[in-house]
Amino acid sequence: MAFPGRLDYEALIYSLPGRYAAEITVSTLRLYSTSALTARVGGVVQFANGVELRVKEYLDFRLGRILDYSYTVYRGSERIRWYDPQPHAELSALSETFPHHRHEPPDIKHNRQPAPNISFTAPNLPALVADCLLLG
Question: What are the residue boundaries of the structural domains of the chain, listed by start?
């Protein structure tokens, strides 16, 4: 599946509250142009189950990919999970999704797990929303 163009990516972002009307209580996600073919996505998605997803993405529509991202999940003021693409080649357990992984308790800073539905070549928001719904 090809990476979506800008209009389709915007449609994905702005349609989330309608597609998950019972689950998403607030979405401040916005796409901001940084050039003719690049953009950043930022904002927060709050869920009825008390989970909050904070999103930062940098997109290149010419290359058809996410250049970088940071996704952080909170329950109240507690950070319960975050995703990042910082390479940890020394950790063989992460090789199946290298460099994509998530941090989670216990010892959230050092407990890294594979993130099988996160990539640079497809939108990550559907997988993140599904994950947040399961955390509630």
Answer: 6-135
